[in-house]
Amino acid sequence: VQLQASGGGLVTTGGFLRLSCVASGCSFSMYAIGWFRQALGKEREFVLAIKQNGDVVYSSHSVKGRLTMSRDNVKNTVSLQMNNLTPEDTAVYYCAASRIDVVTPTHPYEYDYWGQGTQVTVSS
Fold this sequence. Notes:
By secondary structure, the chain is mainly beta.
């Protein structure tokens, strides 16, 4: 199974980015897909995830108001639209796949496969 994340870049405060994660080598619809981020010197943290049934679970209210996530089980792709970005959003963003479907996986150890990460930098 391979996950390929893309779409990161450099934007100014208030800007937007659209990240994508393409999966191969798996039955994509059977996996929850999560996005994590890791800022320099900090631990990797859960941002949001989309479950197998399409429900999206957010890590916080502030994320819910600015980030949206969708999946296309035909193209084996998830998209993450990030709006109104702030410097606090600066991090490497990773997509990951989990077979867990009873609950929403929010911890890194609950995920089976990881993408390589894409850098998001928001300047003030």
